[in-house]
Each structure stands twice: as C-alpha cells, then as structure tokens.
Amino acid sequence: MRLDFKGDTADLNDGIRILAKKLPFEVAEGGFPVYVKRHDAEPLTVEKNASSATISYERKIHFFRALGLLLEHMDEVEWKTEETPQFATNGIMFDVSQGNAVINVANVKKVLTYMSLMGLNMMMLYCEDSYEVEEEPYFGYMRGKYSEDELRECDRFADQLGIEMIPCIQTLAHLIDVLKWDRYSKLKDDDDTLLVGYEPTYEFIERMIKSATAPFRSKRIHIGMDEAWKLGQGKYLLQNGYRNKAEIMNEHLHRVIQIVDKLGLQPMIWSDMYFRAASPKGAYFDLSIQIPQEAIDGAPKQMQLVFWDYYHHDEHFYREFIRKHQAFGQNPIFAGGIWGWSGFAIDYDKTFLATNAALRACKSEGIDEVFATIWGDGGVESNLYGHLLGFQLFAEHGYSRELDMEKLKKRFAFCTGGDMDDFLEFTWLDRPPGLEPETRYRPANPSKYLLWQDPLAGLFDKNIEGLGMKQHYRELADRLRAREAANAEWKFLFRFMGNIASVLADKAELGIELYEAYHAGDRERLRSFMDSVLPALIEGIGELRINHRQLWMEINKPLGWEVLDIRYGGLLARMDTTIRRLDDYLNGCIDKIDELEQERLYYSGKPGLVVCNMYSRMPSASRLSFSWGF
Question: What is the pLDDT of residue 436?
C-alpha cells in the first residue's frame, strides 16, 4: 500500500520510515493521500473515505497510534474514530538488573516499535548497575551493562517514535550487585544499602546520576530509594548510634535532590519508604496510615512520588491510596505491573484484575501519569514478548474512559500479530483447574518450583497432591502447540511455553510417583523410572534448555544466561543422580533410599499452591551458598 502524507510531517518522517519497515505500507508521492494536522488539547481523530484520510493529533505518539488505527481499518471505504488520551504519560518499565537479563539494543528498538503503534509514550530501563559509570570499572562488571552509546542509540530511536526514555536507577538501596565488590566497601551501610551521611557516598551518587542521564534527552530521572529495609542498622549504626529511619531517609533524600537540582534534572522516587515509616506495622499498603504533617512538609517539592501497586483488585483501595499520596501536594505517578516475574508464566488473571481496578481509579482521581512495570526477579525465566498483551492493556486504558475488551483484542491482533485469547493461555502455567476462587487469584508460581525442585527431595510435592498437575500440563502443552499456527509471528513463543508445559507434564508429579512406588515396594515401577521415564525427561529438559538459550541470546545480552545454565545443569545432574540412586537400590548396593525415606511436609507449613520466588529455596533444604556477611 502506497501512502502520501501531506502536511507538516518533518518531525514524523523518521518514525514513519521505521514503521514502514514493519507495516504493509510504503511512503510514495502520488499514493493514497493522508492529510496530517496537528492541534492542541483536542481528541486524536482518524477519518477515512474512498479518496483520502485525515489524521488530527496533539502529540507525536498520538500520530503513530493514529497511523496504526488507519492501517487497521484501511479496507473500510468510510471509517472514523475519535479517542481522548486519558494520560499524559503512559509507558513501560523494564527491569534489566535484578534478573540478569539485559535486553539487547535490537530488541529495545523492537519493543519501542510495538509501543509506538499502541500509543505508549514512555520507556524506563530499570538499572541498578546495568549502565556504565565513568571511572567505575566494577560498576556492572560482567553483568552486560549498557554503554553510553548504546543508551544514546535507544533514546534517539525512541524519540523518533514520540517516546520519552527516562533513566531509572537506585541511589540508596537495591545495590547489592555493586556493593559486593571490595572497591565499594567504604560506601556501604550493609550489603544492599549505601552509607548515608558519608561524603564519598554523595560523590559516587553524583557520578552515577551524571552517567545515567548523559545518554538521554529527557531531564526526568527516577532515583529509586525503595525498600531500604535496614537503613541505618549496619555501619551507620556503629558510626552514628541509633537514629529514626525516617530522619535518616529524609536527610539522604535532600542530599541527593541537591545533586539532581545542580544537574538541572526533575526527580521521582518510589513512595514506599514514606508509607512504611508511617505504618505501625511497617507495612506499605496500610489504609490506616496517616503521613505526619512534618514528613509532608519536609518532602522536596520538586520531587514526584511513584505509587506502585500490582496486588489489589479493589478500585476503592487504589483511590484511597492515591489520595494519601495527593496529601503531599501533587499527583503521584502510578506504577502497575504485568505479572511475569514469578517464573515462566505471565499471570494475566492477576494482571487484568489489578490493572483494571488501578487504572479506573487513576482516571477517577485525575492521575495524569502511569506506567507498567516488568520486573526481573529471580532469574527472568519468562519471555519478554509474552508480556505484550499487558502493554496493550495499558495502552487501551490510556485512550478510553472505559476499557473495551473487543477493541483490545482487535488492537492487539493488529499491533502485534498475536491472538489475545491465545496469549491468555500463558496464565495456565501457574493455574491448575479446580482452584477455589479465593486462591485462583492469589499469586502462586508452580511452573517455576516444580521445574527446579529436586526429584528425590520434592520440597513442594505435598502441596500439589490431588491437584492433577500432570494431566493439566499435558493438556496445556497440547493447547499451546495448537495455537502456534494462529500466531505465526509468535510461533517461537508458543513453542517455548509449550516446551515448558510438556516438561512439567513429565516432571511435576515425578517426586510423588517415585515416593509412592518406593513405599509400595513396586520395584518394577521404580525400574521403569530408571530405564525410561528419567532418561526421556533428561532429554526433554535438555531440549528446553537449548530452546531457552536460543531465545535468550536473541533477545538479551549473553551475560546473565550463565545463571540459568547453572540451574539447568544442576537439574540435569540431579536427574542423573536419581537414576544412579535407583540403580544402587534395585541392584542391592544400598538397602534403602534415604531421600525417599523422609516424610513429605507442606512447604513452609502451608497446604496448596504457594509462591516461592527464590531459586535457592527450591532444589534443596540445605544452603546453596553461605556468607559470613562480608
């Protein structure tokens, strides 16, 4: 299809050329005329008839969404739509530090292209240590950090599509991967937290901020400051004695704000430390919280609070907490979440429930800026592109007062080539059928711990008794494979998810079956495990590892994959050891299998599906690592 854009398109042409490589159109004089009109504070409109089309827009990002809408309806002779943007900022934050997965530049650009079609206009790359800091070679050492040139390239590409890239770093806690190096021993309060009130700390923070902001044209910066659990309780306590955590936090915040002001930047921080300090229980989501007036008065006025919440399903709760944030004198930024950080699954049940409630509340309370977080806790087993439906969910909320599910489905199909109903299947990796309503939407991640748990120790076996996990995963694997054809662009993703389900079909109840056969004295069944079941499962796990590795290398920088290689290697080694233990028992070399003699208990004493994000607690009840704290 040939399109001839007419009007002032000077700042749009680079973005149009980018999208022309992805979408079925080319820019050509004499093609179908598209009249482009820019206006102020009016709805985005697209109007088409048999001879021409008109796009009217306010912001650059609105034009690219409008272009996508036009192309989606190009087959219609006459068509018109009007959308009123609900938020000035609507974007995605990607964690490229905690889970070891640093998205490579090519895929940052690919994601930005999808975002532009959806109408999302902000991207953050959450970097604890995943960026270069001048004169700090150990900062992000061997962690796949971005160079300044790489980030500058991403920012330039984003700007062409009307997307603002905002640096997102940490300037207090969440710095364990920096502070583990001896070079920084004098700068740390504890293993995770910087030493507050120490002048070299602020010299270091200034270098961090300068380096983090240098590649970006935006003057905004997210300086973090969340979850400083032990602030003032380590080296600070030894040097200064006990002081109230809120006082220490406030002093540190003002020092960092001075640096930000000096550099001409506009800061935001996660808001949880203010709210935890005000809660008698030290909780963040405490509706009884009353922030002391002195804390409100002492908060830097040029700083925006970021209210994060991905847990609640009640619109009233979000509205109440937004109002508590507004007591600081300005609207907070809201950060929701796309639930893919608990393992291999993307929990769209939880994502839709929390997002719909939260964004309805944001619209009601006049919140102007929102974004979705994609965290990388625990190794990033989930695939980046499995989150795309969550992108679209935020986007459609951003252009309509009320979410239209049918429009969401159609827009997702056009913007990504994916089928919404098929992407929703990813939820079922962590949702066996038959769960009670009160447990269905509670976070649980069996796909993660049932893969990594040991076949002989079976720490989670008691929890899945009677849930039919084997049959569930077998049926899910079949459904995911059947959906490959309808999602041609995402065939690799459905194959990967189906691969996981297939392995889990053979492994999820393996420990239970071994335990039952052993205690029933069924030596023939034990021999079948040794001779056929376990060797076949080893082959299946090996195929999953190779598939997973290929996808990682295509999407992320290579450093970080070694973490998952070690997990797969450990699992394969334990499968081999299980065969050896069965062989020794069946051939009379040992008279019992000690691991199978142990009574099976509920994980952490809790029946039913549980959540466990820490890999170190899955394969063994013993320590996988040890530290004296230095």
Answer: 63
